Amino acid sequence: MSINKEPEVRVLCSTVSRCERQQITIQGWVHGVRHLGQVMFMDVRDRSGIVQCVLEGEWLDLSLTMESVVAVHGEVVQAAKAPNGIEIHAIRVEVLNQAESPLPFDLNKKQLKVRLDTMLDHRVLSLRHRRAHSIFTIQSALAGAFRAYLTRHGFTQIFTPKIVASGTEGGSNLFPIHYFEHTAYLAQSPQFYKQMMVGAGYERVFEIGPVYRAEEHNTSRHLNEYISLDAEIGFIRSEEELMDLEQELLKHMFDTVARQCEDEFKLLEVEPLVLTTDIPRMTVAEAHRILERKYGKLSPKGDLDPEGERLLCQYVGENKQPGFVFLTRYPREIRPFYAMPAADEPALTASFDLLMGGLEITTGGQRIHELEQLIQSIRSRSLNPDHFGSYLEVFRYGMPPHGGFAIGLERLTSRLLGLGNVREASAFPRDRNRLTP
């Protein structure tokens, strides 16, 4: 009669220290191999960390290449010279999948000493490096904190189409696609849909999803596909409420990742960000005056160029933390047609951008909620209201005053961690020249 043996339960590397004098099984990737006489030390890495394994006897003949996938069954013992004071004395080692050798680059270095393009060409491999791995652990925590805060404050998460009939800004910067017998586009933003859902009675909605911009930029600041953290809220009095909301939201997000990702920040040698004071707010016109007076910088009409954004954040920054500033009152001609005109100066809008560390990470503002005013605004841009029929329908049947904002997740991550290029904050970036992997 055969006896069914219970399968061995896998233990994560981060919990091995709790299993002293027990026999356990770990699984992961070969992170390092060192020979010392009749003993071989093998470091095994999984999603939680690294643990040292000691191989002797028959296991010394085992063929091991870096990044091979292995399972190690052995006894956990104390070892003063081992990382974390603990190691596994192997009883059985199984190579689950042998990795090719040599690797395109060395993953054991403290930092990946390769060009960004090389790193992205071998993206899956580069993501195994502990520093790159930490970036996306932190990014995941940021998105989770965004969701948790808004859910706690009465927001409903929504999921909107990414294949659309027209653009939110009149058809500019759109990627056309073949959609059966029609031409459709990849969505620039969930803007229309999140407004519709506010008008559908949900009042407060948010979405975390991809957006697409057909902009022919090739800079360290731009991606053509990125993740947008969108929020829209009904029954507001002004854009000031939106800036108040985002400020408290960001405080929560930064506090959450500092608490949840302490090890990742240490590994990246970055101090977690704490927002202890209110983010300053100034009009674009005020920013222009500061830049000209302080730096002799002349800015484009009604806006700031990248150098202006960098200098303004430098002006407001303190204690080596990235400077934050809300810029308000953008001119109507550079804002979308749905932007609400400012009550005291109709040539300007009740809109804002948030700059962080010299980079725009947010655009937001109050939206037009009255049908006739919205139709007039569409026509003022030489657009046909008939092309926006499904969007305009909700405004025919009672739309509350509303507004919202969108945060670029990759830009937020890159500024929080001081990364040199926003592509480093995208697992699989899509830019002007990259469609793979």
TrEMBL record:
GO molecular-function terms, A-Z: aspartate-tRNA(Asn) ligase activity
Site positions (Important for tRNA non-discrimination): P83
Keywords: Aminoacyl-tRNA synthetase, ATP-binding, Cytoplasm, Ligase, Nucleotide-binding, Protein biosynthesis
Enzyme Commission number, as recorded: 6.1.1.23
Annotated compartments: Cytoplasm
InterPro entries xrefs: Aa-tRNA-synt_II, aa-tRNA-synth_II, aa-tRNA-synth_II/BPL/LPL, Asp-tRNA_synthase_2, Asp/Asn-tRNA-synth_IIb, NA-bd_OB-fold, NA-bd_OB_tRNA
Family statement: Belongs to the class-II aminoacyl-tRNA synthetase family. Type 2 subfamily.
Its job: Aspartyl-tRNA synthetase with relaxed tRNA specificity since it is able to aspartylate not only its cognate tRNA(Asp) but also tRNA(Asn). Reaction proceeds in two steps: L-aspartate is first activated by ATP to form Asp-AMP and then transferred to the acceptor end of tRNA(Asp/Asn).
Subunit-structure text: Homodimer.
Protein name (Swiss-Prot/TrEMBL): Aspartate--tRNA(Asp/Asn) ligase
GN (gene name): aspS
